[in-house]
Structure formats: structure tokens, C-alpha cells
Specification:
- 2 copies of one chain form a homodimer.
- Helices cover 73% and strands 0% of the residues of chain A.
- The first copy, chain A, folds into 2 domains: 74 residues, Arc Repressor Mutant, subunit A; 121 residues, Tetracycline Repressor, domain 2 (Orthogonal Bundle).
- Chain A is mainly alpha-helical.
- Chains A and B meet through helix 8, helix 9, helix 10 and helix 11 of A and helix 8, helix 9, helix 10 and helix 11 of B.
């Protein structure tokens, strides 16, 4: 599912085709299927990377290679998060630090708006309903995403800043997609980038 | 339930006892009971102020007198919100405008922390689960609370500002009480007043 982009990029540049790529995509797909089965059978804590890899018929090292660990595999396979946090961090950090807050707001709204907010709503239901999912999302959003965005600015209390950023983004999503309070629910993305971006920026680099 | 404070204040100052007070409390209690029954039987849209008052055996004008309308009565009786937005607005506005954001954060955290966040969690479940509840909460939080807090500053786009304030407060509650991401979940109230207050203030009076 998440490989649509790279697969079509592939088709338009056949000269660059390399032998290992399709095999890699097969490995990813097999791991996602196996992960859904194993997480479904024994739960998040009971599922081991080894068991998932065995079910997929690949080496356990492939889980780290393609997903960076069990948390991300769970996020992609079960929560169906449509992105890898490692890609997102790299993308967000490519630009001036003083506009990072605006880039974060624009990026999240653009992704969440796709599909009419279903991604965000599913995410909130997951957090509210299951402790183990909350645990995975905490790891994803704080350790793998926001902590890495706060880090480069060398600010005090990076963990608090990361949770403050998360609070504003989750709140914006709640109002836009779940409660649907107007005018925020229908505001265009750049209006919200201007309104919310500087507040996220203060959490990243400002004085708290 | 909500009358515990005034009832006990009453007992300690018997000299100030006035005839109409207990009757008023009886009327409020009767209206809350009747409202729970009628809302439960015919739903929010089907319930009329007149039907609730008739069930309680009081005049329909008492609903406006004690609750300011059907929305507030629903909020107090069914959602069990422990405050009247009219009191809250008056309390928050008594102080300098430039610190209003901090007072808002302090007031909400103090109320929500009481009971370990159950109030907030119930509120989010209500919004996510029922369109009619979302409608009532939108009226309460936007029309009766935040619009009145934004208004006095004479700022542009007051409706957008009100929803932005709501987004930050709801997000803070989500992280603190529902997702329980540390260190925000255990941070003391004044740390969060310093961190979040200025961001709420920007939504109230700053340039967007």
C-alpha cells in the first residue's frame, strides 16, 4: 500500500531498474502481511520480530532494514500509518529552523486532509481505546518524530517541548476532523499554517 | 450534585439564610432530574424546554433563569459538566487581558486535574461519539465561552481565534489525560501555565 509512489516512479524510469528492488518490495509486503497476522494472534507485546520474519519467510534483519523496528512495523501494518517517521523527519528538517513550525503544520494538515480526516480520526480512536497502541504512538510521535525535530535547536527541556508540539497538532486535528468546529474545520491549510505555525515554533525553539 | 458548595456555605452562615434559596435549589435539582429523563427518552433535538419544565413541575422560565437555556441544562444534567460557562467567563475576565491565556490554562487544568482527568476523558468520548453532543459542546465552548473571551480584545477573526484556543486546550487535555505522554502528563500546573499560556494568549490577542 505504502509503496505505490516508489513503484510508479520505477515504471517511468525503467533504465534505472535494479534487480534487488522488486525483491525488496516483496519482502516489505510479506512482512506487513505476516505482521498483521502475528500482532492479531498474540498482541503487540507477545509478537516478536523473529516470529514475524519467520512467518514472512525472510531474515529477521529485514524488519530493521525495511521498518527500523517492531514499533514502525506495527504502525505501518496495523495502524496503517501512511508514512515512515524517518522519512518525515528528514523532509521536515530540510529547510530553515525558524520556519520548522510552519512546515510541521503544513505537512500534517496536508496528510490528514487527504481522505477527509479519516487517518486522524482512526489515530485518536486508537490512542483512546488501547494502551498498547498509545505506547506505540508515543514512541513514534515523541521518540522518533518530535524529539528529533526539537533536538537540532539545542533547546532546554526537549521532551516537554516534544509533548507540547504533539498537544497542539492533536488538538488542531481534534477540532478540524473530530469535533469539526468552524471556522477551523474548513479553513484553508495556509491560513492555519500562519495561525498555528508560530505557536508550534515557540514550543520548538522559544522561551517556555 | 453541583450544589454541594453553596449548600455547605449555607450551613456555616445560617444568619444569611433567605427563604427563596432552598426553593431555588429544589427547582434546579428537579430540572436536572427531569432533563436526564426527557433527554434520555426523546434525545437532544426532541426534548423541549417546556416538556422538561412540565416534568419537573416548574415554570418553563425557570430553565432560562437557572441554566440559561437548553444547551446548558443538557451540559449540566447529561454531560455533568461541573460549571456554568457564564460563571467561568466572568471569573476569567476579572484580571488583565494580557494574562488571560495563562488564566485560561490554569483554570482548565485545575478543573480537569480534579478527578484525575475523568471529566476531560468523558468530554472527548462525548464529542467523538455523538454528533448532537458535539453540537452542544460547540455551542458551549465557542459561543458561550471562547467567543466571549476573544471579544473584549477587539481582535480580527474572533471565531477562528476561539477555535484555535479550543484546539490548544483540547490537545493539552488529550496529551495529559488520554494519551498520557510524559513529561506533559505529570508536569505541574504552573509549568504548563508558563509553557502553554502565551500560546493561548497569541490566539486571543496576537497577530495570526
Amino acid at each position: 500500500m505504502g509503496d505505490v509512489t516508489s513503484a510508479s516512479a520505477h515504471e517511468t524510469t525503467p533504465a534505472k531498474r535494479r534487480g534487488r528492488r522488486p525483491a525488496g518490495q516483496d519482502t516489505k509486503t510479506a512482512l506487513i502481511s505476516a505482521a498483521r497476522e502475528v500482532f492479531g494472534e498474540v498482541g503487540y507485546d507477545g509478537a516478536t520480530v523473529r516470529a514475524i520474519a519467520t512467518r514472512a519467510g525472510v531474515d529477521a534483519a529485514m524488519v530493521n532494514h525495511w521498518f527500523g523496528g517492531k514499533e514502525n512495523l506495527f504502525a505501518r501494518a496495523v495502524l496503517e500509518l501512511p508514512f515512515d517517521p524517518r522519512d518525515l523527519v528528514a523532509q521536515l528538517l530540510s529547510g530553515p529552523m525558524e520556519n520548522l513550525g510552519e512546515r510541521i503544520v503544513r505537512t500534517f494538515l496536508t496528510r490528514w486532509d487527504t481522505g477527509g480526516g479519516d487517518i486522524f480520526t482512526a489515530l485518536v480512536r486508537s490512542v483512546a481505546g488501547h494502551d498498547q497502541v498509545a505506547h506505540v504512538l508515543r514512541d513514534l510521535f515523541l521518540n522518533q518524530l518530535f524529539s528529533k525535530l526539537v533536538g537540532p535547536g539545542d533547546a532546554d527541556r526537549p521532551e516537554l517541548r516534544a509533548t507540547l508540539c504533539a498537544s497542539q497538532l492533536i488538538g488542531m486535528g481534534m477540532i478540524r476532523y473530530v469535533a469539526k468546529f468552524e471556522p477551523l474545520a474548513s479553513a484553508d491549510i495556509e491560513t492555519l499554517v500562519d495561525a498555528v505555525g508560530p505557536n508550534v515554533q515557540r514550543y520548538l525553539t522559544g522561551e517556555l
